[in-house]
Design goal:
Structural class: alpha/beta
Number of strands: 14
Number of helices: 21
Radius of gyration: 30 Å
Strand content: 5-15%
Largest sheet: 8 strands, mixed
Distance between the termini: 36 Å
Helix content: 40-55%
Strand order of the largest sheet: 3-4-2-1-5-6-7-8
């Protein structure tokens, strides 16, 4: 198919605008969505948020990727502009009043020091002692005034700093009261008062979507749901029947909020609840989450599950690239036991247990393949390994390109998923689970509901009680003692077939086709294998 006929085919199938609230690189799910749907014949534009305002655009296969700049002026809550008469009545007004008054008093003191210095110099050079004594007496009152003024300004500055800390956290009793009152008065529309910064996404993305005139909008996660819903409504108001697909990556009411405020999480939950009914179809990452979303939002149909699966086939040109040797990077030989974790590094991921266990696992090495090896949390693991005397058996490595992940990890003896019990951890079959599986690794998985259940059902690994060091040691010893027992599970016909992005892309393509009423014609080829993307995802 030449370029012109390919463009015509994509235009005939439909124009798709995908939305994501990050910089695209590192988000394997949205990259694979864009590339695979473009390869399947859709005209795809993926809009992401430019990090630090650095706009960019590139091609991802046949898909266009555009990073757009987003101002965050509305993220400054209106209370930042007001006095805190109730909480800190002696605090200065917002902005630079405190700094200005502090500088004024400092300048006053500097002026007085200068005048006293002049008098001291005059006394040493033969000036009139009577005149100098009179001048010093004259300075007593201004010096007392400057002393009192400094104490007063210091007090008010302290009040101002305390007010600013409270406002940054937005987690005081007053904030919690405001959130409760707003939810009671406005219901789901309360997010407009509680977290007005969510409008910043609309102001950045909305005009871009309108200019692209999509037939279908694919909104990834909760922030983009509202942006996509408003764009869909504007298009329908102009007579264009645009469809909206909402891709829910997690159960928002159950997340651990990454903003420590009393307002942010309730606001986001309310916004999602307001706009969820506008989606023509909902996509999500696991059967358990699909059921929870349907129940929580009273959806008329169960969401379609599209797993975060790895690619089964890789573009030959990418496949020809040399894959880094995991063991060589760790500096260990083929015979030394190696367990590996690949993905996001955070305390709730439970990585510490892989370090704490090493004194009880003679000769075993732990490798952490993470996005930011220099992060404070990862370095705390390294520091703990030194305290335990096992630093030579802990290895921190950066991500490899996504299309190399399974081949890279295959050199290990076991893949570890030690996550703690949080609601969203219970319901997901995450990317690394399937990457480990395609690498044919025995698994060591904490007893979170979905992944623990699948592991027990398939027999591809051992399940241990989350945060239980002794049980983790037991599970690791079990898989390292008889690895062939667990690897043999992958020989069962069909086990891994569904856990491929190609299978998931076919599901997504079918959903688009059904929504727009534009199925493939008999003469159109099936979607090609999806070339992999860069940036491993947790």
């Amino acid at each position: 198919m030449d370029a012109e006929s390919g463009s015509e085919a994509r235009e005939r199938r439909g124009r798709v605008v995908m939305l994501v609230d990050n910089g695209v690189n590192g988000d394997s799910r949205v990259q694979k969505q864009a590339r695979s749907m473009a390869d399947a014949g859709w005209e795809v534009t993926l809009l992401g948020r430019a990090p630090e305002g650095r706009v960019a655009s590139w091609r991802l296969g046949e898909a266009d990727v555009r990073l757009i700049a987003m101002d965050a002026y509305l993220d400054m809550n209106p209370m930042y502009f007001r006095r805190a008469w109730l909480r800190k009545p002696f605090a200065y007004p917002p902005f630079h009043v405190s700094r200005h008054r502090t500088s004024q008093v400092a300048a006053w003191h500097a002026s007085l020091r200068e005048r006293r210095a002049r008098l001291a110099v005059a006394g040493r050079t033969g000036g009139s002692k009577l005149r100098i004594a009179a001048a010093k007496a004259y300075l007593l009152l201004p010096r007392a005034g400057a002393f009192v003024a400094k104490r007063w300004v210091d007090f008010r500055r302290g009040q101002t700093e305390a007010m600013q800390r409270a406002r940054r956290s937005q987690n005081t009793r007053l904030d919690r009261l405001v959130a409760k009152v707003q939810k009671g008065l406005r219901g789901d529309r309360a997010w407009r008062r509680l977290e007005p910064g969510l409008w910043d996404f609309e102001l950045a993305y909305g005009p871009q979507i309108d200019r692209l005139k999509p037939d279908l909008i694919h909104a990834n996660d909760f922030r983009m749901l509202s942006v996509g819903a408003r764009a869909m409504m504007r298009a329908r108001a102009r007579g264009r029947d645009v469809k909206l697909v909402w891709d829910a990556h997690e159960f928002l009411p159950g997340i651990k909020p990454w903003k420590d405020t009393a307002r942010w999480h309730p606001a986001c939950v309310a916004m999602e609840r307001e706009y969820a009914p506008y989606a023509d179809a909902v996509v999500t990452v696991s059967e358990t989450l699909a059921e929870m979303l349907q129940n929580d939002h009273k959806l008329p149909a169960k969401p379609t599950v599209v797993l975060n699966a790895p690619d089964a086939e890789i573009d030959p040109e990418l496949a020809a690239e040399p894959v880094p040797d995991l063991r060589e990077l760790c500096g260990i030989s083929a015979g030394e036991p190696l367990i590996v974790y690949s993905g996001a590094a955070a305390p709730q991921r439970g990585l510490g247990i892989m370090v704490e266990a090493l004194p009880q696992l003679d000769g075993v090495h732990s490798a952490f393949v993470v996005l930011r090896p220099e992060s404070a949390y990862v370095q705390s693991l390294v520091a703990r390994a030194k305290e335990l005397g096992v630093a030579d058996r802990v290895h921190v490595l950066p991500y490899v390109p996504h299309y190399q992940v399974t081949r890279f990890l295959a050199a290990a003896d076991a893949g570890v998923i030690p996550i703690h019990h949080f609601l969203n951890h219970e319901i997901a079959l995450i990317t690394k689970f399937m990457e480990y599986s395609h690498a044919r690794l025995p698994l060591v998985v904490s007893d979170v509901k979905t992944m623990g259940g699948v592991t027990e059902a398939t027999g591809q690994g051992e399940v241990f009680r989350a945060e239980d060091l002794a049980d983790f040691v037991r599970a690791v010893k079990s898989v390292l003692t008889d690895p062939d027992r667990y690897r043999s599970v992958y020989d069962k016909p069909g086990l891994l077939d569904e856990w491929t992005w190609e299978a998931q892309a076919a599901i997504l393509d079918g959903l688009y086709s059904t929504l727009l009423g534009r199925p493939r014609t008999a003469g159109e080829a099936a979607a090609p294998a999806v070339p992999a993307v860069t940036g491993a995802q947790a």
